[in-house]
């Protein structure tokens, strides 16, 4: 299975949020695709944050594209020059007011949708978290912090109370690590 050759690229738009690029590609078998669209986004980080009393820290917020309110683990895109660990510590603190003195455990790096997107999500587990300060939200953010016992999360997923895929997959990775 060979790599595609990019013959030409042109941007339809560039924004601080992301870019849309149109590529003309030649496949290894010679077929040419004139209009292959690629969405360029920054990498982001997320974390399963567990308090000292084994509560999982979630954020609840309205998501316009999903047309509803979603329960998710803290997440966000990296700021320029930030390491993944620095990014997740900042995002968790800003969104929830929680911190942890323990080093975040990197559970993995995952492509979001390699068919059409360039970005990845880097997923962490943060243990022994505690409330240190108030939220520091952007003017466009309205986030409610909610804590749930770790042993109730499976049922919440089964009952569709948690439906954001990256939150679900991160929880199951954390559960696997914590059970070993």
Tell me what you see in this structure.
The protein is of the alpha+beta class and 180 residues long. It folds into two domains: 5-40; 44-179, Nucleoside Triphosphate Pyrophosphohydrolase, CATH 3.90.79.10. It has three helices and eleven strands. It has helices at 84-96, 153-158, 165-179, and strands at residues 5-14, 19-26, 32-40, 44-51, 55-63, 68-72, 75-77, 98-99, 105-111, 120-131, 144-149. Strands 4, 5, 6, 7, 8, 9, 10 and 11 form an eight-stranded mixed sheet that branches. A three-stranded antiparallel sheet has the order 1-2-3, with no helix packed on it. The longest helix has 15 residues, at 165-179.
Give a nutshell description of this structure.
The longest helix is centred in the C-terminal third of the chain and has 15 residues, at 165-179. The protein has 180 residues and is of the alpha+beta class.
How many whole angstroms does the radius of gyration measure? 19 Å
Please count the beta strands (DSSP E, at least 2 residues each). 11
Instruction: Give the % helix.
Output: 10-25%
How many DSSP helices? Answer: 3
Shape by Cα distribution? elongated
Low-confidence stretches: none
Give the helices and strands as they follow along the chain: EEEEEEEHEEEEHH
Could you say what the CATH topology of the largest domain is called? Nucleoside Triphosphate Pyrophosphohydrolase
How many structural domains in the coordinates?
2
Category by helix and strand content: alpha+beta
| Estimated share of beta-strand residues | 35-45%
Q: Largest sheet at a glance?
A: 8 strands, mixed
Average the pLDDT over all residues and give the rounded result. Answer: 96
CATH class of the largest domain: Alpha Beta
Supply the CATH superfamily name of the largest domain. Answer: Nucleoside Triphosphate Pyrophosphohydrolase
End-to-end Cα distance: 37 Å
At CATH level 2, the architecture of the largest domain is Alpha-Beta Complex
């Amino acid at each position: 299975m060979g790599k595609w050759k990019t013959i030409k690229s042109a941007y339809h738009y560039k924004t601080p949020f992301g870019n849309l690029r149109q590529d003309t590609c030649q496949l290894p078998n010679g077929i040419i695709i004139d209009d292959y669209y690629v969405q360029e986004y920054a990498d982001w980080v997320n974390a399963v944050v567990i308090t000292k009393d084994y509560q999982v820290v979630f954020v609840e917020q309205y998501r316009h594209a999903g047309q509803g309110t979603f329960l998710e683990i803290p997440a966000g895109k990296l700021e320029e020059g930030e390491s993944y660990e620095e990014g997740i510590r900042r995002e968790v603190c800003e969104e929830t007011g929680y911190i942890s003195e323990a080093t975040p455990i990197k559970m993995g790096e995952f492509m979001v949708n390699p068919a059409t997107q360039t970005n990845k999500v880097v997923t962490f587990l943060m243990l022994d978290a505690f409330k240190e300060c108030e939220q520091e939200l952007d003017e466009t953010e309205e986030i409610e912090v909610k804590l749930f016992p770790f042993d109730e999360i499976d049922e919440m997923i089964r009952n569709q109370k948690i439906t954001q895929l990256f939150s679900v997959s991160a929880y199951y990775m954390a559960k696997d690590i914590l059970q070993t």
